[in-house]
From TrEMBL, chains A, B:
Every HTH tetR-type domain range: 19-79
Source species of the chain: Sphaerisporangium melleum
Record Pfam families: TetR_C_22, TetR_N
Keyword annotations of the record: DNA-binding, Transcription, Transcription regulation
Presence of the UniProt keyword Nucleotide-binding in the record: no
DNA-binding region location: 42-61
Listed PROSITE patterns: HTH_TETR_2 (PS50977)
Protein name from the UniProt record: TetR family transcriptional regulator
Alphabetized InterPro entries for the sequence: Homeodomain-like_sf, HTH-type_TetR-like_transc_reg, HTH_TetR, TetR_C_22
GO MF annotation list: DNA-binding transcription factor activity; transcription cis-regulatory region binding
Length: 218, 218
DNA sequence: CCGGCGATATGAGTAACGCTCATGTTAAGC
DNA sequence: GCTTAACATGAGCGTTACTCATATCGCCGG
C-alpha cells in the first residue's frame, strides 16, 4: 500500500542490502525514540546501531525529520492493516463497535510497537509538499495529512462497511474524531505508562457522542 | 497570578533593566516562532533581536526549552485572564455559552497574539518536575500539566460560576475536553490561516455533546 | 567473460547550534 | 564608603546535522 518511500526517502533502495539497511535504520530509530525521545535522537547513533555509516544514512534519508516521518508512515500502515484484519475477523454489529475496535487497536499498538508511543501518525512531522506553513511550526504541521489519510481509510474500513450514508459532513467529522481521539489517547499515555483506562474509556465516549450526530441509527 | 518565573527561569530578574530584558526576549521569541517555528528558532537570534548578549540570555533562561515554556506560561495566563474578563462582562445563561466563549477567545488569541499559534498552552514543552518520562518524548509530555491548569481554572471560571455539581468525574471530563478542543482548534488552524470556521464550529459541538453527559440540565 | 555505468559505500570535514565560564561592571544595604 | 550580591559579556567548547570527494560494487548487454 502506501510505501515508506512515498516522498520521504531521498533514494529508494533498489538492491537487496540497501533495502535491509533502510529497514534496520527504521527499526533502530523506533527503539531509540523510546529510549531518548525525539530531541535526544541523533542520526549518528541511529546509524551506529544499525551498523551503517553516516554517509549511507544520508544517501537514503534526507534528514532527521525524514527518518522519523518514514517511521510514522510505516506505523500508520501497520495500524491500518491490523485494523482491517480485525474488522474482518470480529463480529461488528454496530458502528460503535468499530470505533471501540479502532481505539483498542490503537492503544494496543502504543503499548507494543516500538516508537509508536512517540510517533503515531503523525504527531511529529509534516510531509513534504504539505500545506503552506508560513509562520507555523513544522512540528505542529504534521497531523493534518496523516490524520486525513487515517480518516480516509477509516471511512472505507468502518463506514462503508456498515453502509452509512456518505458526504462531506461525515468526512469532516471523521477527521475531527481522529484528531480528538489521538489527543486524548496521548493524554492517557502521559498519565499512565500503559494508558490510563479511565481516559481511554472517556475517549470512546467522546467519539461515540460526537459521531452519533453524523451517523444515523440503524 | 501564575508568574512566568514559576519554575521556568534560572533566576528571577530583580532589577528594572533585567525585567525589561526578560520581557523583550519573550516578545522576540514569540515573533520569531511565528516566522521560523520551533526548530528554526535559535537562542542566538532571540538574543540578538532583543539586543541582549547571549550570556545574559542564559543568566535567566535555563535553555531553549525553558524560553518557550516561559512563553507558553505567559500565553496561558493571558488567555485565562481575558476569559475571566469576558465571562464577567457578557451575559451567560447556560454553560454551553461559556464553552462557546472559551473557544471563541482561544481562537481570537490564536489569530492575534504572536507565538500563540505555535505555543498555546502547552503543546510544546514539559514543565520541570513533571511526570516521569522514561521512554517518552519530551515534546509530547507537555500538554498534561498545562491543560490540567487550564481545566482547573476553567472549572472555577465556568462551572462553579454556574453552580454545577463538582466531583472527580467532572474534573476528568474537563481535562479531556480541553485536550480535545486544543487538538481540533489546532487542526482548524493548519487547514486555514485564520482558522477554518467549519472546524471551529465542529469543535464547539464536540465539546458540548461530550460535556452534556457530565453536566446536568438546568 | 568482459566492459561499463549507475547504484551504493565511506568517513573526514564543515557550518552552525546550544550552552558555559572566567572576568568585569553595576546597583543596593548598612 | 565599603561589602555583597546581582547583573553583563562574548570568546570559546563540545556536539550536532549534514556534505562531498572518492572509491567500490552489482548488474546487464554484448
Amino acid at each position: 500500500m502506501t510505501n515508506v518511500s512515498a516522498g520521504t526517502l531521498r533514494r529508494r533502495p533498489a538492491q537487496r542490502r540497501s533495502v535491509e539497511r533502510v529497514e534496520r535504520m527504521l527499526d533502530e530509530c523506533a527503539r531509540l525514540l523510546d529510549e531518548v525521545g525525539y530531541d535526544g535522537l541523533t542520526t549518528k547513533e541511529v546509524a551506529r546501531r544499525a551498523a551503517v555509516p553516516i554517509g549511507t544514512f544520508y544517501q537514503f534519508f534526507p534528514d532527521k525529520q525524514g527518518l522519523v516521518r518514514a517511521l510514522a508512515l510505516r506505523n500508520l500502515d501497520a495500524f491500518l492493516d491490523r485494523l482491517a484484519v480485525r474488522l474482518g475477523e470480529e463480529e461488528i454489529s454496530d458502528w460503535t463497535d468499530a470505533v471501540d475496535l479502532a481505539v483498542d487497536e490503537f492503544v494496543a499498538m502504543k503499548r507494543t510497537t516500538p516508537g509508536f508511543a512517540i510517533v503515531d501518525f503523525g504527531e511529529i512531522m509534516p510531509f513534504p509538499g504539505g500545506p503552506p506553513m508560513k509562520g507555523t511550526n513544522r512540528l505542529l504541521n504534521a497531523a493534518l495529512e496523516n490524520n486525513v489519510i487515517v480518516a480516509d481509510r477509516l471511512r472505507v474500513l468502518v463506514i462503508d462497511l456498515l453502509g452509512a450514508p456518505r458526504g462531506p459532513g461525515l468526512d469532516r467529522a471523521l477527521v475531527v474524531a481522529v484528531e480528538a481521539a489521538d489527543a486524548v489517547i496521548k493524554l492517557a499515555f502521559r498519565v499512565h505508562p500503559e494508558g490510563d483506562p479511565g481516559l481511554i474509556a472517556e475517549c470512546r465516549r467522546l467519539i461515540r457522542r460526537y459521531l452519533a450526530d453524523h451517523i444515523p441509527e440503524r
